[in-house]
Sequence to fold (301 residues):
Amino acid sequence: MYLITGLSWILASDWFFGKFNYPQEHFYQTVKGCGYVLVSGLIFFLMLRKHEKRNEHNLIRLRDMNQELENRNRDLAVSNIELEQFAYIASHDLQEPLRMVTGFLGQIDKKYSDNIDQKGKEYIHYAVDGASRMKQIIADLLEYSRVGKKDLHYESFDVGDVIDEVITLNKPMFAENKVTIFKGKMPVIKASKPLIRQVFQNLLANAAKYRKPGEANLITIGYEDKMDFFEFSISDTGIGIQPDQLERIFVLFQRLHSRDQYSGTGIGLSVCKKIVENHGGRIWATSEPGQGSTFYFSLKK
Fold:
């Protein structure tokens, strides 16, 4: 803007003074220079005022956005309190009737077993099974709702030690499913140790569960040291997953198989996703049906 103004003033003043044959006079050269300073100063003042008005507008807009953000944070805090209240109700008020149902049905089956035919016993079994599954769903919902960023108490720990703990605690289950686990050297990370343990627990349990019937399952745990994060992988030789289902498996309560085939409520991978994302990472999977699957998740350093 200043360059354009300066060139315009010089050309215009040279033309004007040249027309009256005054360009060599010092007085008129001085007038030309002073005029340039005045015009430039005026333009600078107008540009400064325009800039101030734009800043005032942006400041008001930023103030409104901050106020809106504060309002949303207050609403979120209220929602979190309501969610905690729901979790309390679910853990006590909702589970108590289920305990009563299963308890009384068990007593009926025990005391009146001789008077109930096979069809009646089948109905009792279905009722008890349904109540038990509802109880497990409520427990899983509570677990999912309690996984939040406020639970992230960071500490340094060796991931290999966490994996060893999971393997030790689940040794009977791994033996029953003919699972062999190979683990390489793991890094020391800074994260929430209980939550990362939960991720490995869920992923290893799934890898053991979804094996080919009658066949052994090899699970390999590894990691790569990337620039800003660690990338962990858990591979198995199980039944695999169809490519179009790889995103769906991380959705809450999404199941790919019937309960007669494989037990569970379909919440384990959702919990893993929430934990990993709360740590600033992401989780995904690759698979080839009939050949096995590999689950990956990243954690920031």
In short: The mean pLDDT is 77. The CA atoms of residues 9 and 36 lie 6 Å apart. The radius of gyration is 35 Å. The beta strands are 155-158, 179-183, 188-191, 217-225, 229-235, 283-288, 292-300.
